[in-house]
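Figure 6 in text form: structure in, sequence out.
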């Protein structure tokens, strides 16, 4: 936490805040006592998506155009890799 604390602009301090919150939620997700299991405690873990998503959006905004296209392609492929089997499984069972 001391490494993140230094005199910065508002935008940089917000990024530092998101990094701190992402690290907090990462630790929280490992030490949380899963009463119902990871599949039923999804609502507890879903709060961690907020700082991850905001941090990703800010950091992706600083990429160059070619890097943005390549990153978007990777995100779409990985999302499809996880989404299509889920749709197929839930359509038949």
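Output sequence:
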């Amino acid at each position: 936490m001391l490494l993140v604390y230094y005199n910065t602009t508002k935008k940089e301090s917000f990024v530092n805040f998101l990094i701190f919150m992402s690290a907090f939620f990462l630790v929280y997700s490992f030490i949380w006592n899963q009463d119902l299991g990871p599949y039923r405690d999804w609502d507890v873990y879903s709060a961690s998506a907020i700082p991850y998503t905001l941090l990703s959006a800010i950091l992706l905004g600083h990429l160059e155009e070619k890097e943005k296209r390549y990153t978007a392609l990777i995100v779409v492929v990985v999302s499809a890799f996880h989404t299509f089997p889920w749709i197929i499984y839930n359509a038949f069972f």
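Caption detail: The two ends are 47 Å apart (CA to CA).
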